[in-house]
Write a structure and sequence with these properties.
By secondary structure, this protein is an alpha/beta fold. It has two domains: 142 residues, HUPs (Rossmann fold); 150 residues, Beta Barrel (Elongation Factor Tu (Ef-tu), domain 3), CATH 2.40.30. It is 36% helix and 24% strand. It has a six-stranded antiparallel beta sheet with strand order 8-13-10-11-12-9. A five-stranded parallel beta sheet has the order 3-2-1-4-5, with helices on both faces. Strands 6-7 form a two-stranded antiparallel ribbon. The radius of gyration is 22 Å and the shape is elongated. The chain binds flavin mononucleotide and adenosine-5'-triphosphate. The site of flavin mononucleotide has 23 residues, from α9, β11, β12 and α10.
Length: 329
């Protein structure tokens, strides 16, 4: 990062970037313009809860998905520091490290931010210590939607319940999966609904089993997509979770291609059908329903879709395929 120029740093764990985080970015962006400094987001890898938690933490976004949102949100510098380098530092040493190693001269956090050994550093400490040092400092009050404080934990709870519209409201964009298309059992084509299969990752939180209306970016275009997450009980395929999406009106080959799937709404649960014909009749209805959901959504969020597509084009995403499933440590 950043050479000799001073930087205003937005600090936190950042499992993805929700609207509360975006409020912090606005403050940092504005201050950096006024004070002729750079700004950037600084986070810890792996996510502190992976290190400190009880092993059950699954993040919303993979590393490369988070890089994509950082680029989409025009974050000029996204700095990832090994959590092990800083987790035992006391608050004062942590700040000194940011100053000497990263040229930080300003900090923006939320009012509830805690850091350093035993989480002993807080906003009170930052305010007095940074004022003495002459750094810029801002602590932002909790950003709320409908009375609830927006947080990554809350977004994780919403995703786990399959509440995709509420998730979109908190993030400012729909929850999404970016992954390379892999081979399925090639039965979809025979059923009349070919699907792009996506690998599951233990580093990616999935919503519950079921069928979802999605917007899919593939072959440089947006498509309405019918996504199924589940075990395909009709065909008794065992206990390996499957993630597969049928792109409405798409004809062609997607194997190996990286695609982005935005989850807009859950439309039903996955079911066991008595016959393949029963499933096919249901899938026809699913696709109709999904068209009805996608049409107005695409219209309403045309600007978002355009920006995401532009970002995708300029982003060297294909190069990141090898990083899929990996977390930086
Ligand atoms: C929109 C949609 C809905 C689906 N719903 C179910 C379902 O309710 N029950 C089920 O067993 N499989 C369901 N599936 C999964 C199909 O069984 C699966 O797509 C098919 O077996 C083809 O799999 P393949 O791509 O691995 O060949 C659904 C798939 C899609 C695209
Ligand atoms: N709703 C919010 N309003 C203002 N600041 C916030 C909000 N949520 C988080 N922040 C701030 O954004 C930075 C990064 O947040 P972080 O990802 O650590 O918290 P979080 O979203 O509350 O996540 P979690 O729920 O996993 O603790 C921190 O400085 C934090 O205080």
């Amino acid at each position: 990062m950043i050479g000799v120029v001073s930087v205003i740093v937005v600090l936190g764990s950042f499992d993805g970037f929700h609207k509360g985080h975006q409020a912090l970015f606005e403050v940092a962006r504005d201050a950096s313009d006024r004070m002729d400094m750079l700004w950037g987001v600084m986070t810890f890898v792996p996510h502190p809860q992976i290190v400190l938690g009880n092993g059950s933490f699954v993040p919303l976004f993979t590393d490369s998905e988070r890089d994509f949102i950082a680029s989409f949100l025009n974050i000029p510098d996204f700095i990832k520091i090994p959590f092990s380098d800083v987790k035992d530092l006391n608050p004062k040493d942590f700040i000194e490290e940011l100053g000497s190693r990263y040229k930080a001269r300003g900090i923006v956090v939320g009012e509830n931010f805690k850091f350093g050994k035993h989480r002993s550093g807080d906003v009170e400490f930052l305010k007095s210590y940074l004022t003495k040092k002459g750094w810029f400092f801002a602590a932002i009050p909790p950003f709320k939607i409908d009375g609830s404080v927006v947080s990554s934990s809350l977004v994780r709870q919403l995703v786990k319940k399959g509440y995709m519209q509420q998730t979109e409201a908190m993030l400012g964009y729909p929850y999404f999966i970016i992954a390379p298309v892999t081979e399925g059992d090639h039965r979809g084509r025979i059923l009349g609904f070919p699907t792009a299969n996506l690998p599951a990752s233990e580093l990616k939180l999935l919503p519950p089993k079921g069928v979802y209306a999605t917007a899919v970016l593939a072959h440089g275009k947006w498509w309405s997509g019918a996504l199924n997450i589940g075990y395909n009980p009709t065909f008794e395929r065992g206990d390996e979770i499957r993630i597969e999406v049928h792109l409405d009106q798409f004809e062609g080959d997607l194997y190996g291609e990286m695609i982005a799937v935005l989850l807009l709404a859950q439309i039903r649960e996955e079911k066991k059908f008595e016959s393949a014909e029963g499933l096919v009749a249901q899938m026809k209805d699913d696709v109709e329903r999904i068209r009805e959901i996608c049409r107005p959504w695409f219209y309403r969020r045309e600007g978002l879709l355009f920006s995401l597509k532009e970002c995708w084009k300029s982003y060297e995403y294909r190069l990141k395929v090898t990083n899929y499933n990996r977390i930086s440590r």
